Amino acid sequence: MSYEKFNWKQTLSGRWERATDEIEHFYFSLAKLYEGSGRMFFAMTGHVILKANPIPDLPIDEAERRLDAALREGWLALRFDHPTIASQVFLNGGATSSTKVYQSPQNSDDLDAWVRGTLVSVSESTTGEEWANSDPPAPLVPKLFVLRPANSELRRDLVLRSPHEILDGIGTLQTLNNLIRHVANAYEKGPGAELTPKLGSEIKNLSPPYRVAANVPVELTPSQQQRIQEINAQKAAASKGSESVPILTIPYKVGETRPGRHQRVNLWLSEEQTSALVASCKLLGVTVTHAFHAAIAMAVRDLQKPPVTGSLVGQYVNYILRNERTSCFEPYSSAAHPVTVYHSVSGQALVIDMDLSVAEKAGTREPSTVAAEFADILRQIRDFYHNVRDDVEHYAFAPSYWAASTPSLPSDRSIPPVPPPKTTPTASISSMGKIDTVIQSTQGKIEVYDPWVTGEELGNGYGAFLGTFRGRLCLSAAYNDAWHNKEETLEFLCRCKDIVFTSLDI
């Protein structure tokens, strides 16, 4: 393998290209695999609410116009700070690799065309959260949708939509924060502060793939290759389960074979509940993510039908995602390069043995019994997370882990049949952590509320998300309405919260 192919090269006037790495190609291939559904698997949705403070002596209607102008200036500035936001991935011949392409604007008309096509004002007087659940389009290049809810002066809800091979979760939040900084500056300064970028100056800011950003070795040693083979074998075996020890699955509505609408529901904790939860976790030497992942495993078990005969043990099988920006070198470890895919998946599968005999007793068990089981599972999950964290070779193995999971596409580049729903859907979790460390709650005269991220869920499982902002934790879940509904998904989140709070005696 040569890293030369990962360097941005000008192929035509203003056209720059480089090869995608394994992480980018995984997400691009997965979207291609489901292209026949008319939807984009794992398309990113980033959401944030902006509330601008009035400008002294400036009428509200003029302040409204200034805010909209500031959004345009901010989006334009973002193009020059992070030009990869205007890139797109294309499949190569043979359908086993792909290329990321960026077209530099050649004149002001090119820039105006990009802004008109990617900064989209939504006419409905609805909230960003409601609109995000209305099956919005998944664009082939990132677009920022701007909503103005009814009766809400100086408020704008922003929904950033992007293919996952362009942006990941933490990167989406970083991108929104950088955008808000530009918006706040332009809103406060007003007319005359328009950006006058130098065309072509943005090329130096094009982002490399993870392999380059983290300086991943070009070739792994024979012993490292052997270890990866063993890890991949463990994951493959865990995903199959066995007749004696079945894999725990999320019940779903049978019959539909194609995905419907991606949906998101959320459950907020109060500041007091959040503070108590964080304190309890610190005392135990675990994170809030560890606690909710343990609860998810128990909540999935509680959805099982108790076996009449056979094994009384089932397995919760899953994985973890990890932000790899700390593995990258400057400036790629910072928010200077947010429009990237710099994260990893655990190599080995997380496998937790669960007692099936108590499934029917969910909600009626003694708190002490629930707490004892929770403590054991929490320890296993904490140890698994720490093993991934402490593995000094993990950053180098990450591309190989993604490659092992990348689906094959038809060599003739035709649209493949949409895969059927999984026979063993489960519930995963992705944690954004303390979002205040990524997105500032106040920038100049702009107040920020309710930032969140999801990946488009086209499968029949649950994708849970955690994030804390302004002192409150939000537990949310993405699901597809072909197989689940809002009520059952919210009930699942409430069950997870109850398990954590009961077990920690909060």
TrEMBL record:
SUPFAM superfamilies to which the protein is assigned, alphabetical: CoA-dependent acyltransferases (SSF52777)
Disordered: annotated span: 407-429
InterPro entries named among the record's database cross-references: CAT-like_dom_sf
Protein's name according to its UniProt entry: Condensation domain-containing protein
Lineage: Eukaryota, Fungi, Dikarya, Ascomycota, Pezizomycotina
